[in-house]
Amino acid sequence: MKWEVVIGLEIHTQLTTKSKIFSPASTAFGAAPNTQTAVVDIALPGALPVMNKAVVEKAIQFGLAIGAKVNRRSVFARKNYFYPDLPKGYQISQFELPVVEGGQITINVDGVDKVINLTRAHLEEDAGKSVHEDFQGQSGIDLNRAGTPLLEIVSEPEMRSAAEAVAYAKALYSLVTWIGICDGNMQEGSFRCDVNVSVRPEGQKEFGTRREIKNLNSFKFIEQAVKAEVQWQIETIEDGGKIQQATVLFDPDTGETRMMRSKEDAHDYRYFPDPDLPPLVISEEWIERVRSELPELPEAMQARFSQQYGISAYDAGTLTASKDLAAFFEATVAAGADAKLAANWLMGDISATLNREEKDISQSPVNPQALAALIKRVSDSTINNKTAKDVLKKMWETGDAADTIIERDGLKQETDTGALEAIVDEVIANNAKSVEEFKSGKEKALNALVGQCMKASKGKGNPGVLTELLKKKLA
Fold first, then answer.
1. 95 within 8 A of 270, measured Cβ to Cβ
2. Are 211 and 233 in contact (CB under 8 A)?
3. Fewest 10 Å CB contacts: which of 38, 119, 326, 386?
4. Phi, psi of 200 (to 5 degrees)
5. Quick one: average pLDDT of 269-278?
6. Of 136 and 94, the one with more pLDDT
7. What are phi and psi of 43, to 5 degrees?
8. What is the DSSP string of 45-96?
């Protein structure tokens, strides 16, 4: 039997406000346990929540960025469940009337675009944290996170593979960090994914029973967890078993998912409107002001890059994958670099070196102006591409300018036709076999001869000039 995978994501995005959603306590990460709490967060009797306006503004930003409906009126609800790090015995969230409804995210997998529809995005408070490792036979409760503002973003179950799930999570991550509503620090819990997975026989309309994989905090784990869960569900059904709706955890050490608890349905949480919070009312004027302040969004910038700089849609998409990378590219071109060459260097050697050193583009020791200076020396034939790669490496390690390194190390490309002609004559005389192969129609033999000329010139020869000289003498 052939199986179809059905995937939907619920992503908890921590909003970049200085204070919590219903209290003035700080949201800064890393403080000593229970030092960033207020009476609302620890549920002292009589303490009343007060809505943080900045939280609402960030939700509006997100809704506008995905082309969603921003509800003029939304309602907060109490989601009732007991857990030690939830001191009130309920979580303030939104249920029937969320702040954002609908919207779309476009993903690209293997060169094919696909639109993923969103169900909703609603505001809620985070819970605290249970701490086990520092206690023997006991657990501690740290309420610093309690009340931290979250925007929970829920997709429709429209993804059909682990690759699509990862592409969606990455696209959403890029967007929320781009517009500045989330810092994107997955290690600190700022961007956490719950993935709902089910399988069904190919062609069947009804969904299978889903299991929810909780708290995945890396794209790698999303891919591994989905693949493991899909395999487990298919094997279970084919062995005659049934899938039970459940919440599961992914263990990266074993590469397996394991059940944590049977999954609750919405009615089990006994949602009801929070009597301490009035409906959230958003004016049309507020929405329009936020719209006017939104930065240029990735899709719009991608189209502009293609038109303005004459680069391919693929290159434009890669360069707009992050706001910092896009800004670096534009600054490099503004400093005088050819746009296509700047794109090639950023997507090639710069990105490769950053990945190897596990750094972000903002941490690059070679700034846009320095990269532009290097690219200009390739464009004006001062050095060739191979030498430029060596110069970049030295710039990266020392911080020296390209011109300084080229002058100091005597790396200027040899363009004098007379000097290069002597090298060509010598190479032709010493490589009779390649010469005969070229004359018999083997074009690749010319590359071998150019390589020998470059070697003889110690990498300083101009490959274009050498190629033309060889063709002329061998004609």
1. no
2. yes
3. 386
4. -150, 155
5. 94
6. 94
7. 60, 45
8. TT------HHHHHHHHHHHHHTT-EE-SEE--EEEE---TT-TTSEEEE--S
